[in-house]
Design goal:
With 278 residues, the chain is an alpha+beta fold. It contains 13 helices and 9 strands.
């Protein structure tokens, strides 16, 4: 048997994965190998686990697979960050195992979260292509019920045009700079997707994020494909991000999580004049 004999099997598996991807629901998987536990998410965790097994020498054991979202996955990562070894891998210990058991039994409430949000806001009626970016949709859910006057006032505070704010309220993608400006003025945390106090508005430095991504990937010793796997993105998305090209808001947030910083850390505040204080 030659390596060519395996190509149709792999191709068919990936073809089935692509067919399910458009209609499948996100699930969170917990797998163990070599004294570590990986906590990840995928619309087809069975195929994802098979892909991981193909690059690891140790046999994988599936601990559990539960319904979830990427926000839920990130919340689990934050809860267990003191047990993290790298990326999505954690120490295989009693504490992590107990946390997984609680999550399987209780769902998001096991880590202090409410019910998982719906994947799309029914009241907005956003285009299908835009509604796939959960970060954009989450902000739109807050903006959409606001009056036109309130949106105009928020746009002025964020330093964006009212047209941009209206696009965001309709779950239509805007630039990263405009998105994070609106988040600051609204008091919306794009990582936890929860309301907080409004914060000073700053300019999002995409060039600094590109540099941070390149440095983090070099530090981890990851290829673009490996980094993309950790970010639940694509290698082309990582390439675009490192080249300073436009990517989705969710890709930016996942990249910041990969680097280990909050997106707000890349906001550049305008210098304050000593004479006017503004």
């Amino acid at each position: 048997m030659t390596p060519a004999d395996f190509i149709p099997l792999e191709t068919n598996a990936r073809r089935r994965h692509r067919r399910r991807r458009s209609s499948g629901e996100m699930r969170i998987y917990f797998i163990s190998a070599g004294g570590r536990i990986k906590i990840g998410s995928s619309v087809n965790p069975e195929v994802r686990v098979a892909d991981i097994q193909s690059i690891l020498p140790d046999p994988l054991t599936v601990i559990a697979i539960v319904p979830g979202t990427r926000a839920f996955e990130r919340a689990i990562h934050r809860r267990l960050k003191h047990k993290r070894t790298r990326g999505e891998w954690f120490i295989d210990c009693d504490e992590v195992r107990r946390s997984i058991s609680s999550i399987v039994e209780m769902g998001p409430s096991a880590i202090g979260l409410g019910a998982m949000p719906e994947s799309q806001p029914r009241e907005i009626g956003a285009p299908k292509a835009c509604s796939q970016d959960g970060a954009v949709v989450s902000l739109a859910r807050l903006l959409h019920p606001m009056s036109r006057r309130a949106i105009d006032r928020l746009a002025a505070e964020a330093g964006v045009s009212p047209r941009i704010a209206l696009r965001a309220a309709s779950a239509i993608a805007v630039s990263a700079d405009n998105y994070f400006r609106l988040c600051c003025a609204m008091g919306f945390d794009p990582v936890t997707r929860m309301r907080d106090e409004p914060r000073p508005v700053g300019r999002f430095d995409a060039d600094m994020l590109s540099l941070g991504m390149r440095l983090a990937r070099r530090l981890y010793g990851h290829t673009m494909r490996q980094a993309a796997s950790s970010m639940h993105s694509s290698a082309s998305g990582v390439c675009r991000l490192e080249s300073g090209l436009q990517v989705s808001i969710s890709t930016i947030i996942n990249a910041c999580f990969y680097i280990g910083v909050h997106p707000f850390d890349y906001l550049v505040m305008a210098p304050v004049s000593r004479e006017t204080g503004h």
